[in-house]
């Protein structure tokens, strides 16, 4: 998991605005990278760190909203703070629908922007954390044997050892052994914890 | 000539007089001449063996002082002699002959001796038809290998020449040479035939593999040969074409011309067209007509006249030419369109220039540009060039069916049978003017339908025309678009000119606002950063200094934008005309009436008809009135129904030396604080939630440009009154 410091990307065709934003973010200790166009941003390699994008809507070439549409497809999608000199209702709706954390009209108050950026970074950090955890969980789950996975799937649906043994055509003692084994491998301490994990892995049957 | 009966025919011996030779005195040999002749003959054999037999008989003719000389050669079947070489007076009998069993040459071969014959036609009757008659003939045999296969002979046609032993000697010498000459001749012929076969083979190869169609016809225009390319180009198989008339490959209208032309040529040799690289139209089997380039030549073959033509399918070349022509047209129109926009005339003048350019360069009967009117329901004719039933500026209402179809469907329309096509409106007019085609293309700017460009033509149009029209439409649309967005100058003028659009000032302001907001936002953000930098535990003064410098720079940038706009407004105020403000205001009221109705606003007017004229630009001043009206309407949006009223009044203004007209727009809207009265006119100041603060600023600039004044006052009860005074132009100079 990344322990790197968060990074803010700024895409605005106005050089002065880019610099001013970088300076403002610097006062709260946030590192920023600035880009003059969406294409420039897209063609630059981005560090693996919690990040967010401050994006001007009116840009040369690929428009800000177009860029937003592309970034939504990222995993996890990078949170975006839209800034615009001239926001109308359709544009706002479109931006928010596409997952913008915040839409600020230029000129905006500094605290508004800093709050929005912080919120976006927090969201990204959480998303990245969740994704990393999930990756780890999937790996652990992958280390279980076929039989252990079967036992786990049945355990989390609430069946007793006896019932599981009957279902699998084996002895209760064997089920018990598998169960202990898989709990240890998955580093689980309680059934409740295991059920939660099973949910994240998508092992639970859909609710009735 | 008397027909002789068999018993009258003198016998063979009576025509043979060989013994005479010995009785005649012999002339002296001329060895020098003989040698010369033989050397020449040998040289000829080396140089042009093909001609050697002819040379041989000519030599005989010369050396023997004969009147005619020739060679009779047996044919392959040994039944007939053919006269394969003749010189002298009999030269026109070349190719003739005599039978093997009944002829002087036959007798020579039978007896294997030279013969002298006198008037042989007495015995060999058929020789009577070969004139001039043989008075005396000397023939010697001619051997190839061990076989005598020919004779070589000299003839005297009258008694001015009598052959003797010297002639016999010479002829015997020539006879010896003749065999060698003949062998040379035969070898050469064989070689030539092979060469010919080779070249025929080459010709065949060329023709077979040619990409052009090669077609041969006979005198009656029947096709006697086609190559594979013909099949490919015209779509017929070779059997389908052979024996058919060439007219099969032509469109109907060309057929009689071709028939007449070829008949005349066959008869008189006179061509009605140039047959080298002439351009025609061909017709494929599937009925498609296509342009072709034809080169025809004549060739006699076995006595028959053949005409062979090379036909090239030039559709692609024609297409490329058409594209080039279209590109040139397009470039010319584009240049005109750019020029029109660059001149920065009013919108109508620009579109008029565009229409004229289209009519001129596309060579059509008329070109029209229609724009969608403000109700978005009808199209208005704003520019037309060439002939058209409506005068420029006519309100066209729902207009012609075809234009509406284009506008609503946003798709181009092409009609090539205008007089009968229900999609076209004014068919009577079209018919009377000989109009056959119509083409139209929507004008779309930034995905917004703004109008239609169309044209009527007296000749048919095709998809290329639509494409061309489309590209011109793009040009015009692009011009409109660029004009608005590219630079503030033209965008300002254009936007001001577009009185018909209710939201002009708002649109203009949005564009200016963006320009101004950018630096302002940067200034504010930098300012915020500075405050934070200075209030932190360790103030970063260097960073603060850089931020401040940047703020000053951006401040100037914002100020420049505003100054620029103002100066443009002042500059554009040069076109001053005498205006009746009452009339001008009534025009604006027509424009805003729908907006007033929508917001349920009651309008009062007081516009006397005897106002003194003022100097100004009609469009600029309409813009001011329009802006004041718009402000009033927006100010009343949040006021309860029933109390929304706007009063527009004009009156003669005479206070002291100031004379002119005063216009007032009074509303019952939200009004403003009197303390803010002057700030209202500053650029970017606004009290409206979605206002941009440019309208009043621009309006005041305009009024001041015409030496007037514009101000606003809050009303006593509610709402506000904005008024402006413009100096009258018949009063004393201000």
Write the SSE topology:
The complex is a heterodimer of chains A (208) and B (734).
Chain A: E1 7-11, H1 15-27, E2 31-35, H2 38-42, E3 51-56, H3 64-71, E4 80-84, H4 89-97, E5 100-105, H5 110-142, H6 146-155, H7 161-168, H8 172-185, H9 191-200
Parallel strand pairs in A: 1-2, 1-3, 3-4, 4-5
Helix pairs in contact in A: 6-8, 7-8
Chain B: H1 19-23, H2 31-47, H3 52-63, E1 68-74, E2 80-88, E3 97-99, H4 104-111, E4 115-118, E5 136-144, E6 147-156, H5 165-209, E7 213-217, E8 223-226, H6 228-234, H7 238-241, H8 255-268, E9 278-283, E10 289-301, E11 304-313, H9 315-343, H10 347-362, E12 366-372, E13 379-386, H11 401-409, E14 413-415, H12 427-433, E15 437-445, E16 448-457, H13 463-485, H14 488-497, H15 504-535, H16 541-571, E17 577-579, H17 581-598, E18 602-606, E19 614-616, H18 618-635, E20 645-655, E21 658-667, H19 695-705, E22 709-714, E23 720-727
Parallel strand pairs in B: 18-20
Antiparallel strand pairs in B: 1-2, 1-6, 2-3, 4-5, 5-6, 7-8, 7-11, 9-10, 10-11, 12-13, 12-16, 14-15, 15-16, 17-19, 20-21, 21-23, 22-23
Mean of pLDDT of chain B: 79
Indicate the structural class of chain B. Answer: alpha+beta
Helical proportion of chain B? Answer: 40-55%
Q: How many strand segments of chain A?
A: 5
- Looking at how many chains there are and whether they match, the oligomeric state comes to heterodimer
Shape of chain B: rod-shaped
> Helical stretch count of chain B?
19
CATH architecture of the largest domain in chain A: 3-Layer(aba) Sandwich
Number of separate structural domains of chain B: 4
Roughly how many Å apart are the termini of chain A? Answer: 36 Å
Distance between the termini of chain B: 130 Å
Strand element count of chain B? 23
CATH topology title of the largest domain in chain A: Rossmann fold
